[in-house]
Amino acid sequence: MENKKSLPLAGINVIELATVVAAPAVGRVLATYGANVIKIEAPPDGDLIRGMSKGHQLPSEPYNSPLFDVLNSGKKTISINLKSEKGKEALHKLLEQSDIFITNVRMKSLIRMGLGYDALKDKYPSLIYGHFSGFGLEGPDADRPGFDTTAFWLRSGAIMDWVVPGSFVIRPSFGFGDLATSSSFLSGILMALYARTVTNRGTLVSTSLLSSGIWCNATSVVNAQPQYGKNYPQDRYHPWDPFSDFYECKDGEWVAVMEKSYATDKAIFAELFDMPELMTDPRLADLVTMRETDAVAEVVAKVEKIMLTRTAEEWCEIFDANDIPNEKVRHFKEVYLDQQAWVNGCFEKVSYPDGAETALPMPPILFSDFGRKGYETKGCVGEDTEEILRSLGYSDKEIADMRSKKEIL
Hints:
By secondary structure, this protein is an alpha/beta fold. The protein is 40% helix and 13% strand. The chain folds into two domains: 13-216 and 379-404, Rossmann fold (3-Layer(aba) Sandwich), CATH 3.40.50; 244-331, formyl-coa transferase, domain 3, CATH 3.30.1540. The protein is elongated and about 85 Å long. The protein starts with 12 loop residues before the first strand and ends in a 5-residue tail after the last helix. The model has no long low-confidence stretch (mean pLDDT 96).
């Protein structure tokens, strides 16, 4: 589905030398809003995400690869061998015409190839050089391979301390930390693009899964420090607020109830849950006193039993009627059926050659006066190689010669 409005990033040229999720997600968003993004894929297999699709029980064929499309729709792809002189020459011709260079290749390898920031900043002074890594550009872990699970989740404390004591660690969605970090990375690149309008200079923009994981868990990372002493993981019966928590219902589904303010809402809960003690027991006067006296465990246990008397839908109706923020805990299999999400452009339906009609998530930004590109299914590795090389001035004979020498796919 193509939005006929103009696109806010039209005229911006981007080169992406990146694989899998986080950095390609930035290129994907830039392309969605009009940038001309050229993705460089190493021959012969291209982006690693192509081969990973089957491990996620998704098809992985040209024009039938939903996982690859989510992260790469809207881009053109070129497959060049950067270990060859001709391949490097082609890359430099692309960089000459580019505003932004995005990569998640480890900096040590980039420097070895002559593609480090210091090697490019004077040659292309207006180029915005976006580098994404697992652990940052400095320190003893700078050259370690960084994965979503290891650098974002494990190093931030979240994978164990989000659960209650004794539980198995969470298994986050594939690429969750990558996608969270890509939003910060995108913000930095766009800030640099704006700054260039003032300074006429490019810059190095860098971020890491480590820094993003810490930032996303900032409140807990601060709370857990010894001067404050909050213990993690938190016991089921000792939440911050028993009326901003999760409860199982009669039908086995769960509901999150999120009060606006204990001081103003406790009268409502006293009536809804038949708990007059909320208004009379001095231990329950406020949340601090409730925790200090350990009365919070009693309250949670009582609410837990009460919530089991009705279904999730029944509780949601009751909370809605009393203007109490709430939500039934959804399953992944339900999300694409959410009409509120469809009305607000969260999905686009894409038809695949095998007959599947798949709801693919859209980049989550809408403009009143600008549009965004819809999905296009992507084909084979480097499907636009010849077109791109011709636009750089290469003749058909030169392209054929490069292919025979395996400098391109």
